[in-house]
Amino acid sequence: MVYVTVIILAFVVLFAVKVSLISLFFYADVRAAQKRDPAAKSFLEIILLYQGLHALVYYRIAHIFYSMHMFFAARAISQAARLFTGIEIHPGAKIGRRFFIDHGMGVVIGETAIIGDDVLLYQGVTLGGTGVVKGKRHPTIEDNVVVGAGAKVLGSITIGENSYIGANAVVIKDVPANSTVVGVPGRITKQDGKKIDISLDHAHILDPIKQNMEEIESRIDKLERKTG
Ligand SMILES: CC(C)(COP(=O)(O)OP(=O)(O)OC[C@H]1O[C@@H](n2cnc3c(N)ncnc32)[C@H](O)[C@@H]1OP(=O)(O)O)[C@@H](O)C(=O)NCCC(=O)NCCS
Questions:
Q1: Which segments in the chain show pLDDT lower than 70?
Q2: Ligand 1 near 122 CB (within 6 A)
Q3: Phi-psi region of 177 (alpha: psi -120 to 50; beta: other; left: phi over 0)
Q4: Given ligand 1 and candidates 120, 189, 190, 197, which is best to mutate, with the most ligand atoms within 8 Å of its CB?
Q5: Three-class SS of residue 120?
Q6: Is 40 helix (H, G, I), strand (E, B) or coil?
């Protein structure tokens, strides 16, 4: 009976220590989650149950090891985080303040990704590379960007501050600040609060398939005029 009581007490103490440490060192991140998730009911709920926060805690520890060139230990922590949270953040990535991953499952953040302050990612987001090139090969996400569920942002591109990447978009080119991007490949539908009519504004078209289709249509028109 004494043993059981001691074990329960040990768990309670560990639990209290964990909550206190996260509250102390991750206060701003917990507040960010509370602000950005309408479903969040309490500070304690976020600390205990939000996988996005847990992944961030693991990442911050792994990043310290990575900065000290202890790559194996750093990678081991990040793989443990992946096992427990379903979120894979490479310890070499650079992540700013008040970062929040909502839901989280399936998020992958590559080694050379750079993430600014106040960034929000939803589940299934990939900040990945496009090939096997060395050096900077993952995106830079500037401050206050939201990346929707399932979106893929690929290559050494920059997503300008205050931009929105729509759910399931695939973005492979730079995005200017204050833009909304949707679709595959991503195209800008809004910039600085104004809707962009992509049929008129060719400067903002990011969609090579649409451009190819238009080219083919114009060639067919020419051929029809010649033969007709
Ligand atoms: C892109 C987004 C931010 C909306 O931006 P918005 O500027 O308010 O966009 P609108 O609703 O005015 O839509 C603009 C156009 O883009 C289209 N669109 C919007 N979201 C889209 C998406 N994810 N994929 C493809 N097209 C999309 C709309 O149908 C509309 O097309 P139309 O002009 O031909 O009618 C939002 O739709 C989105 O995808 N948010 C991600 C949220 C998320 O992932 N939540 C997960 C919670 S678990």
A1: 198-208, 211
A2: yes
A3: beta
A4: 189
A5: strand
A6: coil
Verify whether residue 138 is a known catalytic residue: yes
- Overall size of the chain counted in residues: 228
Over the Cα atoms of the chain, what is R_g?
22
> Which of 69, 138, 202, 204 is the catalytic position?
138
The response to whether residue 179 sits with its C-beta less than 6 Å from ligand 1 reads no
pLDDT in tens, 7-21: 999 988 888 888 888
Q: Is 126 in the pocket of ligand 1 (CB under 6 A)?
A: no
CA-proximal residue: ligand 1, atom 17 (nearest): 182
Distance CA 94, CA 65 (A): 13
Atom 27, ligand 1: which residue's CA is nearest? Answer: 182
Separate counts of helices (H) and strands (E) for the chain: 6, 16
Contact indicator for 163, 143 with CB cutoff of 8 Å: no
Edge-to-edge strand order for the sheet containing 126-128? 88-89, 108-109, 126-128, 152-154, 170-171
In the CATH scheme, what is the code of domain 93-221?
2.160.10.10
**Cα separation of 22 and 42, whole Å?**
14
Per-residue pLDDT reduced to its tens digit, 159-204? 999 999 999 999 999 999 999 999 999 999 999 888 887 665 555 5
